[in-house]
Amino acid sequence: MEGVEETLRTLSITQRAHSEEPTYLLDLSLQPTASDPGHGRLLAVSCSNFSIHLHNKDTLGLLGEYQGHSGTLCRVTFAHTSPDVLFSGSADGTVRTWDVRCPGTKAVQVFKSDPFHYYCSLDLSCNDMVLCAGTEQVNEEDSFLVFWDARVAGKKEGRRGGALGVYSESHSDDITQVCFHPQKKDHLATGSTDGLVNVFDLSLGAEEEALLATCNSGSSASSVVWSGRDFNQLLCLSHDEGLHLWDLGQLDTDQPLTIFSTPDARSLTPLAGGGSVDYLVGGSWLEEAQKLLLVGGMNSGELHLMECDEKGLHLLSSLQGGHTSMVRCFLWDAVAAALITGGEDAQLLLWKPGGEELKSGKRGSMKSASALKLKSRPHKKHSYQRDKEKA
């Protein structure tokens, strides 16, 4: 980890970009490989105004914008083996496919299911064959995992893709996260505001047989990340800043699954001079270092990079002088040894070791009434509390 620790300790801003509109930056996806090496890799950014921005990864220059969704975007993700294909999911009840070779054009494909399905999570299997979206709660008791064959994408502009099927019994509230295993095409982890994190093997068929494990976070799950050697661990973060790390390699043994757990990770963040982070942004498994990176933030925009293991959290680096309000998303580019972050100040930042910012002029907070309308229902709904009261 020494090499990565030194890299993280020396990160500073290399590039800064900001949206001309007062919008939150919600999610990031980095193109796996560039179809044209002369143009560099692309970065997709979802915004709270329902648009998707396409940037040059190295300069952060805006290359184009996609319009088409009419609800909050829950995810953007590039295909793994077809780098010119970008998927997006939305609370408008659609999953859309975009051709990044043609910025600004209409969606190539539109996937839908039931008219009452509004998606709040999305992912694509590692072999690019299956799309899965998680819905909001329907009829006050049901929520659904919807599956499509992703390979039909691009056959006809505007064509509606019919669902392959649904799972409907494993969650009872908004499914806030669906996350395919990075190496096992049929393994899927899901998290929900019902407090449950489920692991499926889709190759086993029907939902009951496919369900391999259910872990209870005791709270409303906000994100799920595959981690550990061979990606046999699961990190779960909750909307009230809880943290749980489980070892799925122990499923067939009598050993406990929990590696580390805390109902409030903020109290454990070892910041210089005392104090703690205000919130957790998310986690990312650093394959090259075999370590789990956790990013926490302050409401003022300051970021803190931590390692998470069986002993808890260990501060690696603090990043200042960047964002001016909450950070919503980040990704680690292992190839370039760079961190990319986006937040509620409408800023997109590129951090590199020893980098010197080429463009000055830090952007102030751009929060607006329209941005504040961003849906926060998963943060307010906690069915697990109702279950506890009944118990």
What do you see in this structure?
The chain has a 5-stranded mixed sheet, with no helix packed on it. The chain has a 4-stranded antiparallel sheet with strand order 1-29-28-27. With 391 residues, it is mainly beta. The protein has a single domain, classed as 7 Propeller (Methylamine Dehydrogenase, Chain H). Helix content is 7%, strand content 43%.
Quick recap:
The protein is built from five helices and 29 strands. By secondary structure, it is mainly beta. The protein has a single domain, classed as Methylamine Dehydrogenase, Chain H, CATH 2.130.10.
Between the first and last Cα atoms, what is the distance in angstroms?
Answer: 45 Å
Report the C-alpha radius of gyration, rounded. Answer: 20 Å
Low-confidence stretches: 153-160, 359-391
Kindly state the mean pLDDT as a whole number? 88
CATH architecture: 7 Propeller
SSE blueprint:
Layout: H1 2-9, E1 11-18, E2 25-30, E3 42-47, E4 52-56, E5 62-66, E6 73-78, E7 85-90, E8 95-99, E9 109-111, E10 119-124, E11 130-135, E12 145-149, E13 159-161, E14 165-167, E15 175-180, E16 187-192, E17 196-201, H2 207-210, E18 211-216, E19 221-227, E20 233-238, E21 243-247, E22 258-262, E23 279-286, E24 291-297, E25 303-309, E26 312-319, E27 327-333, E28 338-343, E29 347-353, H3 369-372, H4 377-380, H5 383-390
Parallel strand pairs: 9-13
Antiparallel strand pairs: 1-29, 2-3, 3-4, 4-5, 6-7, 7-8, 8-9, 10-11, 11-12, 12-14, 15-16, 16-17, 17-18, 19-20, 20-21, 21-22, 23-24, 24-25, 25-26, 27-28, 28-29
